[in-house]
Task: inverse folding
């Protein structure tokens, strides 16, 4: 079995199989000195935030992304537990043990809650109780999308399948046509814009008819380059920056682009080296390069508006754009508030010292962060 060195928390799998390739937690060519995290700089607090609750859950895993919906937070643990928490108080609404380890995090419309096991079972719950399960043909790393009384699944082999959310009946299956040998074991892109299902297929955004699976449009964000399988990886990764019908997405270690999902047209793309998702507002798209350099691109043109090196090598998550700030989690359990306007440090919050598993979330007016060690922390920014 070949060994492949990939960045921290990234894994690769064969596109057509479920056998994991060995991975090394290493940053491929940088020296230890160069990878030292940037020190935590002093700052003047300009965006106060008060911690309002904390909950300890079983240890989570970086691939199991939490989700917020209708005032509740849904968190899945790699060991198979799924929890719903009240976003205002942290109170447990329900908890269910699936009985199998999970490979993909939670998707929900507030009624049906969907997760996927490592044995390729799609499991759908209602009010914390099992409703149905269905066997899938391939590994899944992207949380299912639950919308319009359907459950949509993007598999690791790049196929998309739709199920009836109430009965579990398979409605349609759009087979993969990509022949790449490797895919990223990391959550990809699966969302809805209006009446179009949008999926990240390799380096492309593809719009599908949610009723039939028929393609409506296809937009390339990045094209494979390089001479080996690793260099040619261009999978689109979560989190997605959305403003109205515009989706801005990152292609792993290669590009950033914005697409008009109503028309199925590319607005712009830029060569950018990064491995986690982005967020967007009316003015900018925000993301971090692989070395932790934070950048803001103008949403209409893709030109760089500002950049900041104060969080270099801190293992950043995707950002959350909220209020005056962009909020970034890091590998030491900190949340950093940077100004949307120029990247100035506005505040810093601490958790339990373990990495944040995803971008911070907003549950109504509550800011929530979930750590690798299972800590769920909530604050109310002033």
Result:
């Amino acid at each position: 079995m070949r060994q492949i060195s990939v960045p921290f928390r990234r894994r690769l799998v064969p596109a057509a199989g479920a056998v994991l390739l060995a991975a090394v937690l290493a940053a491929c060519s940088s020296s230890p000195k160069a990878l030292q995290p940037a020190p935590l700089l002093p700052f003047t607090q300009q965006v106060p935030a008060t911690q309002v609750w904390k909950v300890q859950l079983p240890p989570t895993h970086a691939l199991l992304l939490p989700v917020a919906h209708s005032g509740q937070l849904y968190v899945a643990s790699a060991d198979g537990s799924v929890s719903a928490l009240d976003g205002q108080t942290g109170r447990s609404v329900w908890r269910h043990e699936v009985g199998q380890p999970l490979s993909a995090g939670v998707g929900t419309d507030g009624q049906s809650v969907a997760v996927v096991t490592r044995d390729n079972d799609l499991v759908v719950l209602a009010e914390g109780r099992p409703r149905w399960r269905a066997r899938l043909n391939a590994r899944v790393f992207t949380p299912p999308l639950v919308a319009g009384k359907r459950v949509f699944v993007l598999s690791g082999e790049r196929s998309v399948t739709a199920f009836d959310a109430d009965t579990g009946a398979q409605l349609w299956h759009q087979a993969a046509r990509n022949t790449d040998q490797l895919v990223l074991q990391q959550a990809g892109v699966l969302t809805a814009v209006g009446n179009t299902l949008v999926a990240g297929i390799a380096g492309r955004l593809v719009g599908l008819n949610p009723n039939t699976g028929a393609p409506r449009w296809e937009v390339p964000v990045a094209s494979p380059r390089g001479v080996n399988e690793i260099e040619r990886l261009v999978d689109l990764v979560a989190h997605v920056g959305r403003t109205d019908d515009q989706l801005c997405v990152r292609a792993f270690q290669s590009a950033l682009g914005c697409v008009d999902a109503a028309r199925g047209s590319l607005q712009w793309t830029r060569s950018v080296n990064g491995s986690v998702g982005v967020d967007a507002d009316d003015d900018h798209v925000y993301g971090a390069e692989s070395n932790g350099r934070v950048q803001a691109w103008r949403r209409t043109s893709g030109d760089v508006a500002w950049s900041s090196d104060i969080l270099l090598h801190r293992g950043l998550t995707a950002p959350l754009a909220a209020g005056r700030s962009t909020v970034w989690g890091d590998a030491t359990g900190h949340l950093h508030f940077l100004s949307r306007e120029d990247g100035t440090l506005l505040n810093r919050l601490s958790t339990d010292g373990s990495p944040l598993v995803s971008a911070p979330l907003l549950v109504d007016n509550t800011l929530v962060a979930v750590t690798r060690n299972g800590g769920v922390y909530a604050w109310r920014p002033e």
In short: The chain is about 0% helix and 50% strand. Residues 1-12, 15-32 have pLDDT under 50 and may be disordered. The domain at 52-177 is CATH 2.130.10.10 (Methylamine Dehydrogenase; Chain H). Residues 243 and 281 are 6 Å apart (CA to CA).
